Amino acid sequence: MELRYHDVVCYRLVTTHLRFVDRETVAASLPPLLEQVELAARVYRSMARGEVEMPPKIGVHPRHDAFLHAMPAYLRELDVVAMKWVSGYPDNPARGLPAISGVIVVNDAETGVPLAVLDAAEITAARTAAASGACVQAFAPAGWSVAAVLGCGEQGRYHGEVLRALKPACEIRAYDPVTERARDVCPGALVVGDPRAAVAGADVVVTAGPILRDPPSPLDESWVADDVLLLPIDFDFYVSAAAVAACDLFLTDDVAQYEAYREHGHFRSWPDAHASVGEGLEQGLNGSRVVCANLGVGALDAAFAHAVLTRVGE
Known about the structure:
This protein is α/β, with parallel strands linked by helices. It has helices at 5-14, 23-29, 33-48, 121-139, 154-166, 179-185, 195-199, 241-245, 255-263, 277-283, 298-312; strands at 19-21, 52-53, 58-60, 67-75, 80-88, 100-107, 114-119, 146-150, 171-175, 190-191, 204-207, 228-232, 249-252, 275-276, 289-293. The strands form two sheets. It has an eight-stranded parallel beta sheet. Helix 3 (33-48) crosses helix 11 (298-312) and helix 4 packs across helix 11.
């Protein structure tokens, strides 16, 4: 996917007032799935080359296990600056509300003037799955064909779509504590009633449970095959420190952010990351057992918001 500088100028010049882009418009304006995966990889590589200004996210925690984070980023290659203000409330689905919600503000890099406010939910879901897709392309076992998805909320659905886009004939095993939800969210997947059975022999494992302060972390090294890619997008809810320590290569999308989370009580006893995902891509790193713990970075939100605004302005 090629996003040129004049594309950026285009939507800036036509914007004479602050635009609000709702979730439905965002969803209709995202690039195709494989282009999203390519964009995520491109952003990670830019981060590794020092072409992105992105401080560790700051946050507040009004309720237990809930957070609101501010995630600013500037992408020099695209000359795009944006900030996501996002909340995560794991109890919200029981209230009939989304677990993740927020907005992304895009500013003009030349003047600082706000250009647009986008609903963040669709971009958050899409860029998270696209980031995993970039890791699957680079770090999954050669010829991978079986994927397990633990946790069938919104991220389970988006990851299933990305996995199918990468390899249409792959087998996807889906586990969720609510079996009917797994069937509804992951159509075409083999619904399994036990998480360990879903993981057994899988080449790629996506864990998409809630992010909690005191997670159960049942997935240890005995669950996984010798050649596997683990993608714990739920931090340490499923994946244990022992499973990570048993891997040959441990990457995270933002090493500084990973260290900050460890200081706040997440990832207890987890080892140091070997490198960032972007560095892994740039250096061609790999291993038999690989963990990519993508925490979510504002640079991806900025890039995806830019892609949406470019297409909305066409």
